[in-house]
Design brief:
Radius of gyration: 17 Å
Structural class: alpha+beta
Largest sheet: 8 strands, mixed
Number of strands: 13
Order of helices and strands: EHHEEHEHHEEEEHHHEEEEE
Strand content: 15-25%
Bound molecules: N-hydroxy-L-asparagine
Distance between the termini: 40 Å
Length: 289
């Protein structure tokens, strides 16, 4: 028989995994679960790294990246999108309603509006204040584990044992205008292959993009590694080649049996899992102690 439905998310995101799990119980589908999970931080103004309430770029624009992938290998993504609270659902619409994989910026916004999404101002007073304080020194320095909550990556197994993944973010705070990270990159922040499993990423997107981390993890699993071993091997790719000392990347992986793995460069990464209706936050092992 199929394994029990399970959903995992980067960081402490109990609201997201519970909402995603409930959705899987309702519709049966992993894809619905990861989308419903991403909605929670996207709509939460207190979450300063995803959707509404996300910190802006250095020019004061909240620009969103998101992607989604299903068990058939379909994928959709939006990048540099402004003014839409739920970029994950726009990414899903790109996947389901267009012949394309990725829409960007103004074109992504036009598409979203044509699909009935409503435009709104995503810059909250809290995020605006943080930006104004940042502007005094205007120094871009991505911080490790700035917050407990961060870019959300999600992976789920649905009722048929099928796999899906999603990711949603406002990107690195105070990034250059136009900067796009790993979060909308299929194979970077998310990859699923229904024969093998799935992976997702959080942290410094530049490292994830340069090593195509989630694709790499799935390929490692295809070649026989466990989800845990595959996450560790993908972190080692970064550590071997780049100056990782000040930076964080965290990976999650799941295989078709529902076994999960997690690994990060720095201490402080964790993830949330909901299965059998139970939700737990688990600390990840890390390369640096
Ligand atoms: C990015 N990976 O834009 C995202 C940001 C992130 O923890 O995950 N922050 O690079």
């Amino acid at each position: 028989g199929n394994p029990e439905p399970v959903i995992i998310a980067t960081w402490k995101n109990e609201g997201a995994t519970k909402a995603g799990f409930d959705k899987i119980i309702q519709t049966g589908k992993a894809l619905d679960g990861v989308e419903a999970g991403a909605w929670i931080p996207e709509a939460n103004p207190e979450e300063t790294t995803v959707g509404y309430g996300g910190f802006p770029d250095r020019d004061g624009h909240v620009t969103l990246d998101a992607c989604i992938m299903d068990h058939k290998g379909n994928a959709g993504s939006v990048t540099f999108l402004e003014g839409i609270m739920h970029p994950i659902s726009v990414a899903r619409a790109v996947m389901e309603k267009t012949p394309h994989v990725m829409l960007s910026g103004e074109g992504a916004l036009q598409f979203a509006l044509s699909q009935g999404f409503k435009k709104m101002d995503l810059l909250t007073p809290k995020a605006k204040k943080a930006w104004e304080e940042w502007k005094i020194k205007s120094k871009y320095e991505p911080k490790v584990n700035i917050e407990r909550h961060d870019t959300i990556g999600l992976l789920a197994l649905g009722k048929e044992g099928e796999i899906a993944g999603a990711c949603s973010t406002s990107g690195m705070a105070f990034k250059m205008h136009g900067r796009v990270g790993d979060s909308p990159i299929i194979g970077g922040a998310v990859f699923c292959d229904d024969e093998v499993g799935g992976a997702c990423a959080t942290g410094l997107g530049e490292f994830v993009m340069k090593t195509l981390g989630s694709f790499l993890i799935v390929e490692f699993m295809r070649n026989g590694m466990s989800p845990q071993q595959a996450c560790e091997a993908a972190i080692m790719r970064i550590v071997k080649r780049y100056n990782y000392k000040e930076f964080q990347v965290g990976y999650l992986a799941i295989n078709k049996k529902g076994d999960v793995g997690a690994y990060s460069i720095q201490k402080g990464f964790n993830f949330t899992i909901t299965k059998n209706g139970q939700t737990k936050v688990i600390e990840s092992a890390s390369y640096m102690s």
